[in-house]
Amino acid sequence: MTGPSGTGAAPSGRITRGTTGRNRLRRSDRWTAHHPDVAAALSDPRPLAVDVGYGARPDTTLEWAGWLRRVRPEVRVVGLEIDPARVVPGRDGVEFARGGFELAGLRPDLIRAFNVLRQYDEDEVADAWATMTARLAPGGRLIEGTCDELGRRCCWVLLGSGGPISLTLAWAPGHTDRPSELAERLPKALIHRNVPGERIHSLLARADECWDHAAGFAPYGNRVRWRAAARLLEQRTGVPAVPNRRDNVLTVPWDTVAPA
User: Fold this and answer.
1) Fold type of domain 26-254
2) What integer pLDDT is reported at residue 240 of this predicted model?
3) Disulfide: which of 42, 131, 152, 164 matches 101 by Cβ 3.0-4.6 Å?
């Protein structure tokens, strides 16, 4: 089966478990719809967004399209899956095709690959990133990340053609006791780096310290407590505190967490 571009190139990557669920990527979707880098990437007259490895059902791709249309109603969205049995007919203005990291020959302005590289080895990440970012249109962006089964804890890396730009941690305020609990959902590039001496370990430890110091705000709820903790983290580390109405969110420059 050829990709949307008609190249007929063999898909790059491996078939994943395909686990998915409705509304699973809502935290990343909300962040994506409000991030200035994403808006800039989608600035072409008819931008293209590609969702890599959407799984056994296309639910999250269809939801992503709805969020992206809030930014750019003209956006064209394509979902790709390596397993031909998972490729479904297009619907709701979204196309589906067979493809992997080679993006079926497309040159998108925005790529998303969620819960895909988690099933790869750490030493395979750099090549996968490079393969996808090489296909980006000028100024394009890649969002690569991981979340739990219900989407309550999510982590993702934002990348451009030059490599990683930032790491974002996002979690449901009522279902996470400490920021460091996000460690189990770190992207593959970082999940094995949460050990003393690594930057991601230091960041999570400092976030926990600030969370503990903000305990006095606990009666007002975990959202208010995290806002106070994030302000303290900003004072101590220089990491900007970015309030979010619904989620607890921490976004840091990549060099803050890059493997030592």
Assistant:
1) Rossmann fold (3.40.50)
2) 83
3) 131
